[in-house]
Amino acid sequence: MPVKEKEITILNVPIDVPEGTSGEWKVERFTVSEEDIRLHNLRCSFAYGMHGREMKAGTYTKLMRGGTMVMSDTPAERWDHYDFWRMAKDHVLINGLGLGVVLAACLHKREVGIVTVVEKDPDVIKLVGKHYLGNLPEGKTLSIVNEDAFVFKPPKGVRYGAVWHDIWDNMCADNLPEMHKLHRKYGRRTDWQGSWGRWQCERQR
Predict the structure, then answer these.
(1) How much is the mean pLDDT over the chain?
(2) Strand 90-95 relative to strand 112-119: parallel, antiparallel, unpaired?
(3) Cα separation of 45 and 49, whole Å?
(4) I need a surface site. Which of 19, 76, 147, 168 has the fewest CB within 10 A?
């Protein structure tokens, strides 16, 4: 049964990007067993910085580059984008396509009408972006721009309801200078903006 629009949040919007490969990128499903969960959640209860990243058993989707998992649609990773999804309204800008978790949630949010995604890797657009472009909910507008986030120039006169920066593979304090640069770039062009993992990066520093 499809999830009704009013019931969809960043935590339960379906991620149905087909499995496939383009260049060095791959989308594939993976299953987490009850035994895997017990061990993972036990580590989360003791490891610094892992609180709140517990998981549930089930089948998930991941985006791989080579042999490295760049992102997945597990509950913990969905929560990482919650603040942006909560603030998203009108025309939103997302720097970084990834698996499209936050994009999918925005396309199903009543308050969002237009989504612009800036993604520099054409293989990610081919593998993930085309799926969303071909399955747009009624009344929504989606543009995916093949451009570097630091080079992309927003159209003159456009103001965004919210902007989200998610162009990094991992949470590291070394990402902070780039986050600051992007936040300065959009400081006067949006009502709200945020960067994936920023507070964790600041805590590491």
Answers:
(1) 89
(2) parallel
(3) 10
(4) 19
Is the distance from CB of 108 to CB of 8 less than 8 angstroms?
yes
The pLDDT tens digits of the residues spanning 46-104 come to 444 444 556 677 899 999 999 999 999 998 889 899 999 999 999 999 999 999 999 99
CA distances in angstroms from 83 to 79, 80, 100, 167, listed in the order given? 8, 8, 16, 17
Q: Which of 20, 96, 33 is nearest to 64 (CA)?
A: 20
What's the Cα-to-Cα distance from 191 to each of 20, 83, 161, rounded to whole Å?
Answer: 37, 13, 5
d(C-alpha 183, C-alpha 4), whole Å: 34
Q: How far is CA 97 from CA 174, 177, 187, 188, in A?
A: 21, 21, 21, 23
Residue of 171, 169, 163 whose CA lies nearest to 197:
171
Record the tokens describing residue 40, joined without a space: 């993972």
Q: Per the confidence metrics, is the pTM higher than 0.85?
A: yes
**Cα distances (angstroms) measured from residue 66 to each of 21, 69, 124, 128:** 10, 8, 13, 16
Domains and CATH numbers, the chain: 20-74 (no CATH), 77-204 (3.40.50.150)
End-to-end CA distance of the chain, in Å? 45
Q: Residue 187: what residue type?
A: G
Please tell me what DSSP assigns to residue 147: S
Nearest to 106 by CA among 122, 87, 123: 87
Secondary structure element (H or E) that encloses residue 102, with its range: helix 101-107
Residue 136 CB neighbours (<10 A): 12
